Amino acid sequence: MNRSLTALSAVVQALGDGVHTLNLVGLRTDHTFVTGRSDLSISTNPTLRLSALDEDEFYALRALLVFALECSTMRSAVLVATTAAGPSPRACGWSIRDGWLHPMDTAALQEAVIPSPAPLASGARSTPRPP
Fold this sequence. Notes:
The protein is globular and about 45 Å long. Helix 1 crosses helix 2 (55-70). It has helices spanning 2-15, 55-70, 106-113, and strands at residues 18-28, 33-43, 49-52, 74-83, 90-97, 100-103. It has a 6-stranded antiparallel β-sheet with strand order 3-2-1-4-5-6, sandwiched between helices. It contains 3 helices and 6 strands, in the order αβββαβββα. By secondary structure, it is of the alpha+beta class.
């Protein structure tokens, strides 16, 4: 739990002021995916203020982050923060491995946020893309 607070503190500092959406996707050891999402409002003027727009979503995301950082129930996980408002929308990403957040480079972040392919026409086959 303490490590998730430390990780979230680092994320909040990296994001700065604004309304941000955090998305966490993890691959569990049983090969199923888990996801969490939370919208956060961050203000640093005059002091740091963080508010979750939906506390239940935030607590669920934090619980998933705890499991991802703990490394025994998830094989891999990615945390992506997006900021749509403001003069320049942006995205930041971190892979979660070895018990900590590691910044993703632009290519890895782009790969992580590519939407799933559209369903194929009836009878067509597709090879699933690995996570």
